[in-house]
Structure formats: structure tokens, C-alpha cells
Amino acid sequence: MNADTSTPLRFLVAADVPCDPDSGAAGTIYQMNQALKRLGHSVDEIWASDLGRWIRHGNLHYLLELPYSYRRILRDRLKRGTYDVVEFNQPHAHLAANYFREFGATGVFVNRSHGHEVRIRESLANLPSCDDPIGARGRPWLSRLLQHALDRHWDQTSLSADGFHVSCTDDAEFLQKRYAIDSHRIGVITQGVPQQYLATPAVAIAQHRNKSLLYVGQLARFKAPKVLAAAVTKILSKCGEATFTWVCGIQRHQDVRSLFPTRIQHRITLLDWMPQAKLISKFDAHGIFLFPSFCEGFGKAPLEAMSRGLCVVASDTGGMHDYIQNDRNGRLVPVGDVDALANCVVEMLDNPEEAIRLGSAARKTAETHTWDRCAQDAVTFYRSLLQRKQANVGQK
Questions:
Q1: Which among 173, 159, 73 has a CA at the least distance from the CA of 118?
Q2: pTM score above 0.85
């Protein structure tokens, strides 16, 4: 077990996602792994292609297949060598965590969550059904039964893992309250901004750009698409020169467009997902970024927008609550409040100097969120877990 702060750590990082730097959770894991390597640590990576998959149904895969796949591949890797940190993403690694402990492996087993599933689902359960996006359907009794069984994975993981890596204080507080996990076992490690976003100087916000609104996010209930659409409709109705761009999967564009009245649809542009390198130009063509989620784990898109000097108006939840200081480097509005979101943006449109001031401060905030800094914060947390485990072993 290596708790020496001067010696590189050996990592085993597993995630049931494809190795894709441009994807959400997968991109976060990829960027963190690359940063750990740049800091001199060794990282053995396990992706979905390494785990294999036979069950196509999502919840059945998580319930009946993934826990055993995680345990199988951990058993295989431990036969080859030892690790200081074993980090498995998602709570479905409880069998792997138990095996790690029973094996008597050195090092620490860390569970990483990009947004606590139980917290997010409970937050959504309090919303009226009318807030479902187009195409959403209520869960039948079998789905609810499966979800209850999946929730038990968190109960088991909370007891077996040495530590928990989360991205926001909302998740950390939930772990402490719901599962009685001691604060020293939880590390709140923020996510970073791609280096190319920081290396390229932000484009100055011109008058016409300030009237261009942008949102990057999927059409999912927790993203509050109907709140967004209602607020944008109010904004465009009040500000005749304003336009709005939504970046999401092209297969949902028809559903997205149906959220807006016909009279403003000619002022709305829908774009498909694109690589991060290409997305920079879209950020640089807009001045205000909207992000009205009901709940989030971290929420990378607002931070990426901040890195390009945009004025961000976001709901006060998840990571946004942590890295946006209201009226200093952006604006936070109450969750689900259409009028507050719309009025805040209209105020920015009427006062472009204020939007520019907030965008400039936002860029400075984003410059501190490099992936190398995030990786160093993670290493500091992991070393604290190693030291505590080493001390406990010494007392036995």
C-alpha cells in the first residue's frame, strides 16, 4: 500500500462505458485517466469493450450481468499484480468491492459516481408528470421492481467500498445522510475543462453575439427540457433579435422542435452532437448559456461555456451550485422556475455590459478547473484513504 506522497500510484480504473473522450461520463473518465498519467501515475484502464455484454436491456444488464463482470475482471487483474487504487464507476461494483476486501488486497477500493442515481431519481419523483419530456413514459411495476433491486447496490456498496469519489457537494451530503458514510470516506473532486478550451483565448463578446443563446444537453427529464423551452419562448417573445441554439442528438430534433410554438421556430437552430474540438466554435458564436436542470451530478457543459467567456444562467443545483457564485461569475436561479430563468436572461440582454462582466469572471473561474488540478485533488484524496487504511491495519 503506497501512501508516500512522493511515489507514483498504481491505478485500476473500470467503467461500463466506451472509451470516448467526447462523451459525457466516458469523457470525464478518459480525461481524468490522461491527467493521472501526465502526473506520473500508472493507470490500467477497463472499458465496456473489456467487460463484454450479453444482456441488451439496461436495468437487467446492471442487475444481472455488470456486477459479475466487474468482479470477474477484478479477479483477473489482481492475479497479474497489485494496485494502490482500484476505482470502479457506478454502484454495480459492490461484488467487486466485496471481493477486493475478501482477497485481502492492498490499496483502497473507490466507488465513483458522476451523479448519484438515487438522489436524482428522488428529486425527479417530486416533480409533476407534466414535466416529462416528449416521448417519456411512466415505469410499469416491473421497472419499479428492478429499480428497487438496483438501489440495493448502493446499500451494499456503501458498506464495502473504502471511499467514494463524487463531483458535487449535493452528492456528498446525500451519501452522508442516506447511507451514514463518514465524510473522510468521501472526496468531492470537481471535473475539468479540456485543455484546448483554455489554451485558446476566449473570443470577445460582441453585441450581436450576446443576443445568441445556447444550450448543450440531451432531451432527458432531469435536464428540464420543458422548463428550458418555456423560458426560451418567453425570452424570444420579449427580445425580437434574440436567437436560440440547442445541441443534442439529431434523432431527438423533431421532439425538441415540437416544444416551441411555430411563431418562433425560425429563430431556433438545432445541431447534432459533435466532438469537443468542434463545439468550441459553437460556444464562441454565442453569448449566453442556459442550463436549467432539475438536478445534476456536476454539469460539465456550463463550465465549458464559462471557459469560453459566456455568461451562464443555470439552476442552483449539482456542480453549478459549487462553481458558480451568483452575480460574480454567472447567475443561479431557483430550480424549475421558468420566470426566474427567463427574466434573468432578458436582464442580460438588456444589459450586455453585465453579461460581459460575468463572462469575463467565468473565464477566470474555468481556468482553475484544469484536468491536471482535478487529478491532483483526486490523488490527495486517495492518499488520505491509503494512510487511514494503513493506520487501521497497523492497529490490528
A1: 173
A2: yes
User: What number is the average pLDDT over the span 86-106?
Assistant: 95
Do 195-367 and 10-192+371-395 have the same topology in CATH? yes
Q: Round to whole Å and give the CA distance between 19 and 48.
A: 8
Cell numbers given for 340: 426566474
Distance CA 135, CA 253 (A): 12
Please check whether residue 307 is in contact with residue 330, taking contact to mean a CB–CB distance below 8 angstroms.
no
Q: What is the mean pLDDT of residues 136-140?
A: 54
| Domain ranges (residues) in the chain | 10-192+371-395, 195-367
Residue 313: Cβ within 10 Å count: 28
Among 120-134, 245-259, 370-384, the minimum mean pLDDT is found in 120-134
Strand order in the sheet with 42-46: 42-46, 10-14, 85-89, 108-112, 163-166, 186-188
- Give, as one character, the DSSP assignment of residue 245: E
pLDDT tens for 290-313 read 999 999 999 999 999 999 999 999
Say which CATH topology domain 10-192+371-395 has: Rossmann fold (3.40.50)
C-alpha cell at 158: 456503501
CA distance 363 to 125: 35
The CATH class that applies to domain 195-367 reads alpha beta
CA 76 to chain centre: 30
